[in-house]
Specification:
Blueprint (H helix, E strand, L loop, with lengths): L4 E6 L6 H12 L7 E7 L4 H7 L4 E4 L17 H7 L3 E4 L2 H6 L4 H14 L2 E6 L3 H5 L3 H9 L2 H4 L5 E6 L13 H19 L4 E7 L7 H5 L6 E4 L6 H15 L1
Parallel strand pairs: 1-2, 1-8, 2-3, 3-4, 4-5, 5-6, 6-7, 7-8
Helix pairs in contact: 3-5, 7-9
The structure holds 1,3-dihydroxyacetonephosphate (13P).
Subunit structure: Homodimer.
Catalytic activity: D-glyceraldehyde 3-phosphate = dihydroxyacetone phosphate
InterPro entries: Aldolase_TIM, TIM_sf, TrioseP_Isoase_bac/euk, Triosephosphate_isomerase, Triosephosphate_isomerase_AS
Length: about 250
């Protein structure tokens, strides 16, 4: 059975041991029929307990070091360390990393390459700010954020890209269906032109996804799932999003 939809949560800087475990245990009870991959990106100190508690749920990191080799990089977590504890994926280039930690394309390309080399699936996050959209630069900005994928992607790899317009993150302002459709069609075509059709391209939408708006988003062409922030922190709302993905996959 091939995965038709991906529903990934991004806990950001949230969670506590006890509530994480309860959340993962509730999510593990959902039968996704192997058509929907469910995962959560968690703060790095919660990776191991989350991996131990998770059943039918992928557990990944929210970030990975730009440095590949072990060494004197205080505070960093390498892709090899993520692989060692069994983390299955890592977010790369979330807009909050780009904004607060000044991560640029060269750094993100290194992180991506490190994840691929360690066998940890990278989920590349892209998206424009409101200012850039209003200046009609949304596609150009996203194209730039994707540009280095050409050299980073290996044959037959799964390329997961999450389109998260910055103005839709945590604001309750979800992008319109038309905006999502247009950008996802653009990203699909652009990534295809960069990496060729040997790779398995999967595009997620992120930004104020919730239980009420997700079904309409999942129905859009080239939307292969969602990257969910706030609504992934509560079992009920995240479970409803997963259920909608299962319906969309049928
Ligand atoms: O940033 C996000 C996921 O990575 C989206 O966050 P919200 O779903 O809270 O808008």
């Amino acid at each position: 059975m091939t995965i038709q939809k991906w529903v990934l949560g991004n806990w950001k800087m949230n969670g506590r041991l006890a509530t994480n475990e309860a959340l993962l245990s509730q999510l593990g009870q959902i039968d996704t029929d192997e058509k929907v991959a469910v995962g959560v990106a968690v703060p790095s100190v919660y990776l191991l307990p989350s991996l131990q508690a998770a059943q039918n749920v992928l557990v990944g990191a929210e970030d990975v070091s730009r440095f590949a080799a072990d060494g004197a990089y205080t505070g960093e977590v390498s892709a090899a360390i993520l692989a060692d504890i069994g983390a299955q994926f890592t977010l790369i280039g979330h807009s909050e990393r780009r904004q607060y930690f000044a991560e640029d394309e060269a750094v993100l390309a290194q992180k991506y390459a490190n994840a691929v080399a360690a066998g940890v699936l990278p989920v590349l996050c892209v998206g424009e700010t409101l200012e850039q959209r209003e200046a009609n630069q949304a596609q150009a900005v996203v194209a730039e954020q994707l540009s280095w994928l050409k050299d980073a992607v290996l044959l037959n790899q799964t390329v997961l890209v999450a389109y998260e317009p910055v103005w839709a993150i945590g604001t309750g302002v979800v992008a319109s269906i038309e905006q999502i459709a247009q950008m996802h069609a653009f990203i699909q075509e652009h990534v295809l032109s960069l990496v060729g059709n040997a790779a398995n391209i999967r595009l997620l939408y992120g930004g104020s996804v919730n239980a009420d708006n997700c079904a309409a988003i999942f129905a859009v062409a080239h939307v292969d799932g969602a990257l969910v922030g706030g609504a992934s922190l509560k079992a009920d709302s995240f479970a409803n999003i997963i259920t909608a993905a299962i319906s969309a996959a049928n």
